[in-house]
Each structure stands twice: as structure tokens, then as C-alpha cells.
Amino acid sequence: MKASNRPVHPTPRPARQKARRILLVDDSRAQRKVLSIQLRRAGYVVTEAASGAEALRACEAPTPDFIISDWRMPEMTGTELCRNFRNLKRDRYGFFILLTSNSDSADIAVGLDAGADDFLTKPVSGAELLARLNAGERLLRVEEELRHSNDKLRAALEELHETQDAMERDLREARKLQQGLVRERSGRFGNHELSLLLRSAGHIGGDLVGFFPIGAEKVGIYALDVSGHGVTAALLAAQLSVHLSGSADQNVALRAAQSGQEAVDPATLAHFFNNMMLEEMSTDTYFTMIYAELNHVTGRISMVQAGHPHPVVQRADGRIERLGNGGMPIGLFERPVFDEISVRLEPGDRLLLTSDGLIEAVGPNDRILGEEGLDAIMRTNAFLSGHAFLESMAWSVSEHSRGQRNDDISAVLIEHRAPAETLSLKRR
Q: Where is the signal peptide, in residue numbers (predicted)?
């Protein structure tokens, strides 16, 4: 009895959920019969094909895990079958073994180029065949595990994309709500005109600007910048907006109970917020602020600077002055020192309050715009006023940073117009 025909005790194969399918391709019915008996005894599900064309039809469904094909066959050789098999659209890998009577290295190179995984020399040893199948089993198991992991990863990515889409929608709505915190973007009080600018680096940010009337002669003006970005900063900014709203029962600047006066003065307001941050909020977040009280009859502005960039006055003759010594941020120290500033705006003068996102805008070669850059922008746009000035300033900053905005940008522009100019604006 030849070695290829001797009974072979099946080699135990790794446990799996279902038997592997083998497509046995050979134009010799006798050869197929011998191998088929051995493979079925080993627990495989075997399908036979007498030609390459028949084998390709058999690959459609159910798809085989292994293909064992003779090399020399009429009409379509084993290598041609292998190449055609590799071109089929399959959702899993198929292990291809070529049977050859020639172990020449040139033939093996041709088979490998066609996509074959392994070779067996005729006459085929049953033990060697099962050993090669076990080796192929390991490769198929690895491929299945990778495919399963990819499926899980794909499902996780799809879920993540859905979550991100939902977050994007929520953030877009949150942006609308946050923009709504700035109820008015401009206002006129006597001979003074107020203009506001608020641009977030992302969907939502921590900058906030606004104003509210205080009696018949005064108006409160605020500009603040919460540390950090995103949801945390936006939530604190929203809470602060409630405390600075126009409603007298909510606006802490309008509460007269503590001082018995018409309104809480700027320094007292800063200390109130500092105590609120330290006593009521368990957070590492802080914010910088300028709160100003404008008397639009006299042009006198009293303000407090709490870590915010210096207020900038541009006089009617073009001179630029920086005010204040800085002061400490709100929410960091138990006994902070804030800078109290007083300035008078004459007709033609204007006061600009900006967040650090503007002067810290980064341009080419990591060059920061800085105070000198802001001065240059103010001089260049001196002929503009109101929102036109702020929009041109924002455009210049965007040009400097090549359109990249790493921080929120906010600004308040207070302009003291001459009476004739104010009358002209009212008539427009």
C-alpha cells in the first residue's frame, strides 16, 4: 500500500464553532475520492469539483475556507484558478493549497505569485495534508479575530460618529443660546455709542460682553474672559451673564442693599464675584474682567480691572493711552487686589476693551500680535467707528493669524461722539 493511501488517524484540530469547508479540485475522480475520505474523517465538510470553472461556481455559496487544487488540469490550471479565486469578492480569507508533482523553486514562485498559501507534493501524505491544514487553520483564526475586531471597531466608530454628530448639533444650539446672552450688540446713551464684538474660537466659548442701564445718567459695561475653553467656560459665562443681566432683582451691580447706593461700585462688584467663586463653586476655573460705570452726561468712566488686558483710549487726535496696572484675576485669591481706574472721554475719544484672545493672536513664525500690533490696527482704522471698526479689527487679527483662532475674541468699543455727529447718526 502506498504511503498516500494508508489510513491516517486524524490529527486533533483546535476546537471551533463549526466544521471548516474544503473545496477539493482535481480532474482525477480517484484522487478526489482518496483525499475526500481522509478529510471527512478529520471532520471537514468537503465539496468536490472536477475543473477550475466548476470550482469557481462552487465558491459562490457556501464559500469554502480551504481550497485544495491540483496544479495540472485541462482548460484552467491550479494557478489560474488561484488567481481567479483571489479576484472574487469575499468577506473572508480562503486558504489555498496547490498540489504539484514538481517541487521546483521556479514553480513554487509562480504559485506564490498567483496567490497560493501552501504547496503539497504528490503523492500526498495524509498526515502532512492535515498538518498543513492545521497551519492554515491558525492563519484563518487570526484573520477571523482581526475581522471580528475590525467589525467591533467599525461599530464603535459608527457609534462615536453618531455621538459626535449629536454633540455637534447640541453645540450649534448652545452657540445660538450663548450668542443670545448678548442681547444688544450696540447702544446709544446721550453722546456715547457702545458697540460689542463676540467671536468664539469653537462652537462655544468663555468670553462675555454686555451693558445695562443704571438710572438716568449711567450705564454699566462689562467684558470678561473665563479661563479655558468649551463647555465649562461657557457654563460659567452663562451664570455670570445672569448676575449681570438687565433685571434688577438678578443683576448684582444693581443691588443697593449692600451699600445703600444706587448701584454697587465696580470694585465692590469684583470682590462679590471673587467671594462667589471661592465660596460657592468647587472649580479651578477663574476669570478676568473689566467692569465699567459710564456717566454718559459727564463722560466720566469708573472701572475695575481684574486681570483683563489694559483698556485702551484713543484720543480724538489719534494718541493712544493704556490704562491700569492689571489687577488680579477673579476666583484665585482670598484677598485679591484689583485696579480701580477713572478716565474721562472727551468728544472724539473712544475706549476699547478687548480680551487676550486678540492681542495674543499668533501669526507666522509664532509672532504674537501684541499691544503694538493692536495699536497699529487702531491707527489704521481710526477713520472707522462702531461695528465697522470692530469688524475691521477682527479681520486684521484673522489676517495676522492666517485664519487660525486659538482663543475667543471679544471687545467693547465706547465712543464719545460730538453732539452734531450723534444727531446725524440718529437721523440715519
A: none
397 burial class (0-12, 13-18, 19+ CB within 10 angstroms)? buried
Q: Name the segment(s) of the chain with CATH classification 3.40.50.2300.
A: 3-8+15-150
CATH class of segment(s) 3-8+15-150: alpha beta
* Residues 235, 241, 243, 247, CA torsion sign: negative
Answer whether 312's CB lies under 8 Å from 358's CB.
Answer: no
* pTM, to two decimals: 0.62
- The three-state secondary structure class of 290 is strand
The b/e string for 123-139 (b: 16+ C-beta within 10 A; e otherwise) is ebbbeebbebbeebbee
Domain with CATH 3.60.40.10 in the chain: 184-427
Q: Which residues, including other chains, have CB under 8 Å from residue 321's CB and lie 6 or more apart?
A: 312, 313, 315
Contact 48, 36 (CB under 8 A): yes
Buried-state track 245-255, b at ≥16 Cβ within 10 A, e below 16: beeeeebbbbb
| pLDDT one digit per residue (tens) for the chain, 428 residues | 444 444 445 444 444 457 899 999 999 999 999 999 999 999 999 999 999 999 999 988 788 999 999 998 988 999 999 999 999 988 889 999 999 887 677 778 888 899 999 999 888 888 899 999 999 999 999 988 998 898 899 888 888 888 777 766 665 655 556 555 556 778 999 999 999 998 877 656 678 899 988 888 999 999 999 887 767 777 788 788 878 875 667 788 776 534 445 678 899 999 999 998 898 876 788 999 999 999 999 999 999 999 999 999 999 999 999 999 999 999 999 999 999 999 999 999 999 999 988 888 888 888 899 999 999 999 999 999 999 999 999 999 989 888 777 778 889 999 998 765 543 444 34
Three-class SS state of 428: coil
DSSP for 173-229?
HHHHHHHHHS--SEEEETTEEEEEEEE-SSSS-SEEEEEEEETTTEEEEEEEEESS-
CATH superfamily of 184-427: PPM-type phosphatase domain (3.60.40.10)
Residue-wise DSSP of 322-385: E-----PPBTS-SS---EEEEEEPPTT-EEEEE-HHHHT-B-GGG-B-HHHHHHHHHHHTTT--
Q: Distance (Å, rounded) from C-alpha 116 to C-alpha 230?
A: 55
The answer to whether the CB of 337 falls within 8 A of the CB of 325 is no
Give which of 67, 82, 88 is closest to 116, Cα–Cα. 82
